[in-house]
Fold this protein.
Amino acid sequence: MRPPDHGRRRALVCLPTYDERENVLAIAEAILAAAPEVDLLVIDDASPDGTGELADGLAAREERAHVLHRAGKEGLGKAYLAGFAWALERGYELVLEMDADFSHHPSYLPRLLAEAERADLVLGSRYVKGGGTVNWGLGRRLLSRGGSFYARTILGLGVRDLTGGFKCFRRRVLEAIDLTSVHGQGYVFQIELTYRTLRMGGRVVEVPITFEDRTAGASKMTTAIVAEAVWKVPMLRLRSLRAPLDERLPSGGVASLRA
């Protein structure tokens, strides 16, 4: 089944949820209002607070909204991979990642979609000129910037925001990556997909966003997510040195949009 043809490339926002009852309807409606070419897939991991049921109600009355129910909580990375597979099966040309708590504001969607005209992967970046964070303490800021610096140094990349999760992929990138070999969950999942896009010769563009910490619901950040990135990033580098991770894309390069 392919998405309806409205005279333009169709895009799908993949929105993983777990106990996001306070946010899911508001963020879903804001996403659909932000860009007419965007459809929405809520990927719910059997939230005990009823998030999935609320999403079902939205999908019943809004043809651009869909819900993918999973049996239980398996982590952010697996949720996104399930969403990517769903999108590819249905012929979407652009596939986006977003958080469900308004830390990634839907108002940035038109900019990411526009930049996808010239890029294989567009990153909503906190760490280029014009980007930033709101309502973060010193510890969270140091952790985030330190994580990006750590990954940049080990992997030899120029991308400023490697750990962010507000992204727009072109279809050909997700088709070229061996998604069955991606096993990370939090930070390292985001780092790995960007790294592998670049290793394939994909063009990556960063656009500035302001990341605002959630005001409702509980954060999903854990020490296990940080620890996973610490040891898996060097392993990712070693894997890439031993053999190509994926097929090459026809053209390459990386750009960082600064204004």
User: Anything to note?
Assistant: The chain has one domain: 11-242. The helical segments are 24-34, 51-61, 76-89, 109-115, 138-155, 171-176, 187-199, 223-242. The longest helix spans residues 223-242.
